[in-house]
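Budget justification note: compute hours in this period were largely spent on complex prediction jobs such as the one shown. Inputs:
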Amino acid sequence: MRGNFLFAWIVLPTALAVLGFVAQRGDTVRGAMSGPIYTRNGDLLPPASYREWIFLSSGVDMSYNKKSAKLTMFDNVFVNAEAYRSFLVTGTWPDKTVLVLENREGKDKGSINEKGHYQGTDVMGLEVHIKDEMRFPGKWAFFGFESETRPGKLIPKAADCYGCHEAHGAVDTTFVQFYPTLIPIARAKQTLTAEFLKIDASMREK
Amino acid sequence: MRGNFLFAWIVLPTALAVLGFVAQRGDTVRGAMSGPIYTRNGDLLPPASYREWIFLSSGVDMSYNKKSAKLTMFDNVFVNAEAYRSFLVTGTWPDKTVLVLENREGKDKGSINEKGHYQGTDVMGLEVHIKDEMRFPGKWAFFGFESETRPGKLIPKAADCYGCHEAHGAVDTTFVQFYPTLIPIARAKQTLTAEFLKIDASMREK
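Corresponding output:
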């Protein structure tokens, strides 16, 4: 009887409370996780639900050369929430940061819009810039996706994007200079690169 | 003694477990809550951390007339996560939906950018469209903010924005036609207005 009493009134409720507590923590952690998942051959699974991640900014027709493009194109950049929260504290990116660049066509006339551009429903391009310190020489890698549902391929280290990001990215090979809510944090935390600081004054004047 | 035993081994641990559980749920709920907070005189507190809410889309220089503007301006739209998740299921907005429209100037040359526009660090405009069924006739109201930190003022019902949203918003007085990830959901859930369905075909062709 004593054993039954203990089980019914102490062990069982305590175990259930602890289990409930752990399960809930588990849910919270799972809900927040958004780290990279690779296939056996080294491709990267498309990041699920990146549209629910933290939005960094959107640009339109941005280019490092003056060639004109045929289409108006938006680029939206998202980052996983864990990396964003870490950036707010440190001014730089932690391991397992995943930045997603999504391109959408800029539509002009539609509904009541008579001028300017809004974003179309089709994703026209998807790229991931990922920090995985143990996996990639240089810590970061780019992956290109041909669809939102199929694994993306590693972009070779010789591609221009690596050199350009390393030379011109304001923080840790990333273009924080174009993310309006992050650049003031990087400035305060003094994580801007020396290269960027040289041109910083000219950007601040504009 | 019996009373002490009960208190020390049953009542206290159970109470602590329940309190812990509730406190954690409370944290979760508080963390996720992003409903409206009004001042005594009916102003609306600026929504905290809306940049961490769900991004719906960004447009550039959108206008319902053809007048040209002096500045290139981006408009970013965010919605509270609870309302977004409800929309994914129902195709329309629940009570206490908060949509935030943020304007930022489109900058042109800066860093390596030679063409197109990226978003500047200053918020040039901030408006909230809020659904609070018990509070507002017509269920929805607009609030305009002069700063990101001071309460915003209710925009009077006679203002153009109300009539335009009611006449042309694709779902429940909101411009879901410009939110590329939501319009397919509204289409699937058949929550598009009759007025929008008339012009829908023309938008889909573009």
